[in-house]
Amino acid sequence: MQKVATGLFGASLSESARTAAGAGMHFAYGGFWGAVYGLIQSSLRLPAALHGLLYGLVVWLIGPVTLVPAMGIMPPPQEQGGRRALLVAGFHVAYGLALGLVFDAFTRPGRRR
Fold first, then answer.
1. What residues contact 2, with CB distance under 8 A and at least 6 apart?
2. Domain ranges, ordered by start, for the chain
3. Distance between first and last Cα of the chain
4. pLDDT digits (tens, 9 = 90+) for 64-107
């Protein structure tokens, strides 16, 4: 976020503004991937847990493995150290699993509305 503020606006962000902006960007990014998940799962209808786990892994591969290091936000997993790399991957897989199970619960046929 600091790079965007400096590059586009010639401004520096305070620590609290960087934290808030980073959290906002992360939630927006996660919301985008949640919407993409809904579109894909509505078409494929794979088992919720399987699709969620695979989806979380794909989001991790696209984001923290590819895009985030390319933007210079954090190093690639192989440079982070084993524990941190596993935590980041694990959180993304857990996100996918939770997304899959919640989406399934809300879209299951026969669910009372």
1. 12, 13, 18
2. 30-107
3. 40
4. 999 989 988 889 999 988 999 999 999 999 999 999 999 999 99
